[in-house]
């Protein structure tokens, strides 16, 4: 397999040189942070009065964590480290949980952000001749615009389609012979389920790759999208606070996501004790951004659960990789005292060929107990008039789920297209317990 790089020097840099670069950039980040209202008070309390108080990368552990709540409380400019007039771009998080938070970039920050995003798409084998249909939402959300810039920087023809309007998406895919799509995994599945309705014949399309991200999804969902569309699907992870997509991307080997470590320092911590964990162990991802002067963020707690993959990737990049996200620390459900991640449920059902492209998890109160309902769409072929077949399928799903999560759910089978779809991030869980 031929490996292409955007910036081979930095992508294959030795660990020693990379760590020296990280330290230098961390110092710059800390000196920027000291200029902000937020860190200007916090860092000196920890004995960090200037960047020179940092002697080695290990000193990072003496710096305080930053949380989403800190960002909210600093809204709008409490973390701004440059004069407002130097800011050329702002973004806000989509607010999946709570009120939005904002980030700022100078022109140099934006160029650095675009550069690493270009590295990410090149790592998947994208070329300047590709036609890139960007189905992520454009707007305050980083997901759409940031990858747009990275793709354009490579020289791809970018179609800023944004999300929604399925009919128009298909039409553009056909008319412009789109070769790469960027979308949420749930939208890729949904789009495929509507192909026949819009009279689209896969032979009319030229699709080769999809970049999917913005929401948790299992390896089985990736495989399902690959199988349905006959393409390569790459996982992309990012968050607005850290400039959005481009931060972690799979390369052609599709074996976990490289994090550009000259731009980010990653740590995995135990979310309860806050102690750092060694490579390979699962915990909460904590990130420090190194290439943003306008708004430094130090040891930001992402609340996302994952692990660092030890060892080097076959592509030759020395930047370490992150495993697929297990979910967020705050999306764990406690059902009758048992901890359940929605990703565990997805993993089980998406492995079953009869299960279609959409599902919904509902948790309700049933007297003193909790009731877990898993609603799944099933494929057109599996939707038969034979109630015995349907009953058997339902029982099999119940048994597989019970074996995995130890709780016996109620399973409901629905026709394809019957469950609600959302344009942005999919809403897979309805916890109706709080409302009662
Ligand atoms: P919000 O916190 O408002 O949803 P963002 O729109 O920035 O803000 O979303 C970032 C979050 O989306 C991440 O912290 C993570 O939980 C989730 N996410 C993004 N990409 C992926 C991915 N590839 N796999 C799993 N989760 C993802
Ligand atoms: Zn690789």
CATH topology of the largest domain: Rossmann fold
Provide the β-strand percentage band.
Answer: 15-25%
Structure class: alpha/beta
Radius of gyration: 22 Å
The CATH architecture of the largest domain: 3-Layer(aba) Sandwich
Distance between the termini: 56 Å
Low-confidence stretches: none
Account of the protein in words:
By secondary structure, the protein is an alpha/beta fold. It has 2 domains: 1-329, Rossmann fold, CATH 3.40.50; 333-435, GMP Synthetase, Chain A, domain 3 (2-Layer Sandwich), CATH 3.30.300. Helices cover 29% and strands 25% of the residues. It has 11 helices and 21 strands. It has helices at 8-11, 15-33, 37-45, 68-73, 107-123, 142-154, 166-175, 185-193, 219-229, 342-350, 387-405, and strands spanning 87-92, 102-106, 131-134, 157-159, 180-183, 209-213, 232-239, 244-250, 257-259, 264-269, 283-289, 300-306, 308-309, 321-322, 327-328, 333-335, 338-340, 355-366, 369-378, 410-414, 429-431. The strands form 5 sheets. Strands 4-3-5-6-7-8-9-14-13 form a 9-stranded mixed beta sheet, sandwiched between helices. A hairpin with a 6-residue loop joins strand 8 (244-250) and strand 9. Helix 10 packs across helix 11 (387-405). The chain is globular, with a radius of gyration of 22 Å. The model has no long low-confidence stretch (mean pLDDT 94). Adenosine-5'-diphosphate binds next to strand 7 and strand 12.
């Amino acid at each position: 397999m031929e490996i292409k790089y955007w910036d081979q020097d930095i992508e294959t840099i030795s660990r020693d040189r990379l760590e020296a670069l990280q330290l230098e950039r961390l110092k710059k980040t800390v000196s920027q942070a000291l200029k902000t209202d937020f860190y200007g008070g916090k860092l000196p309390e920890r004995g960090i009065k200037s960047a020179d108080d940092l002697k080695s990368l290990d000193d990072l552990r003496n710096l305080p964590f930053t949380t989403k709540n800190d960002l909210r409380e600093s809204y709008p400019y409490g973390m701004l480290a440059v004069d407002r007039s130097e800011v050329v771009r702002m973004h806000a998080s989509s607010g999946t949980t709570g009120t939005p938070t904002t980030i700022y970039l100078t022109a140099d920050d934006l160029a650095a952000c675009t550069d690493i995003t270009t590295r990410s798409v090149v790592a998947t084998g994208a070329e300047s001749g590709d036609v890139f249909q960007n189905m992520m939402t454009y707007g305050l959300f980083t997901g759409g615009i940031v990858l747009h810039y990275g793709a354009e920087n490579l020289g791809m023809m970018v179609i800023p389609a944004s999300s929604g309007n399925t009919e128009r998406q298909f039409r553009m895919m056909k008319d412009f012979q789109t070769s790469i799509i960027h979308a949420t995994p749930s939208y890729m599945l949904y789009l495929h389920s509507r192909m026949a309705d819009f009279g689209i014949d896969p032979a009319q399309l030229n699709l080769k790759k999809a970049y999917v991200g913005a929401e948790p999804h299992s390896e089985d969902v990736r495989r399902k999208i690959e199988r349905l569309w006959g393409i390569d699907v790459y996982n992309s992870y990012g968050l607005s606070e850290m400039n959005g997509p481009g931060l972690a991307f799979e390369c052609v080997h599709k074996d976990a996501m490289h994090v550009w470590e000259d731009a980010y320092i990653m740590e995995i911590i135990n979310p309860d004790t806050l102690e750092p964990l060694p490579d390979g162990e699962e915990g909460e991802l904590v990130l420090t951004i190194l290439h943003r002067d306008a708004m430094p963020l130090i040891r930001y707690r992402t609340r996302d659960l994952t692990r660092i993959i030890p060892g080097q990737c076959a592509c030759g990049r020395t930047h370490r990789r992150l495993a697929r996200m297990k979910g967020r620390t705050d999306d764990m459900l406690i059902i009758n005292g048992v901890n359940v991640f929605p990703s565990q449920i997805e993993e089980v059902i998406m492995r079953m060929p009869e299960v279609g492209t959409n599902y919904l998890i509902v948790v309700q109160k049933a007297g003193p107990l909790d009731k877990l309902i898993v609603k799944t769409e099933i494929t057109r072929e599996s939707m038969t008039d034979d109630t015995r077949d349907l009953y058997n399928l339902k029982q099999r799903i119940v048994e597989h789920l019970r074996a995995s999560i130890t709780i016996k759910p109620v399973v409901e089978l629905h026709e394809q297209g019957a469950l609600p779809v959302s344009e942005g991030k999919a809403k897979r869980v309805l916890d109706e317990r709080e409302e009662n």
